[in-house]
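User: Hi! I have a protein structure encoded as tokens and I'd like to know what sequence might fold into it. I'm fairly new to this, so please keep things simple.
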């Protein structure tokens, strides 16, 4: 089997003073909260990171099911991230369940 050519992905984001922000990928865009203190109901950057990891894990289920020839009807992934605000730290305890 000939290996598939590698794919590349590109996303960009812009933000305005006050935290109004948007991320763009492929032909889609998504508004998000870029403010320093958080402004629900829009998702923040950490929400988008958790969602991206959940999407990757879900897609891998579909991908590996074809490689290993095992059927499934549905799957669920939950990703949780925990962050320290003071002092600012990267995600201290990422967790996910399958």
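Assistant: Happy to help. Inverse folding works backwards from shape to sequence: for each of the 98 positions I chose a residue that suits the local structure. Here it is:
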């Amino acid at each position: 089997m000939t290996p598939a050519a590698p794919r590349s992905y590109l996303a960009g984001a812009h933000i305005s003073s006050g935290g109004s922000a948007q991320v763009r990928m492929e032909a889609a865009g998504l508004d998000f909260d870029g403010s320093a203190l958080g402004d629900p109901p829009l998702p923040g950057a950490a929400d988008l990171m958790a969602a991206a990891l959940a999407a990757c894990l879900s897609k891998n289920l579909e991908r590996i099911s074809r490689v290993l020839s095992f059927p499934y009807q549905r799957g669920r992934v939950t990703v949780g991230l925990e962050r320290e605000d003071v002092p600012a730290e990267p995600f201290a305890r990422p967790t996910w369940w399958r």
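A useful reference point when you look it over: Residues 44-98 form one domain. Feel free to ask if any position seems puzzling.
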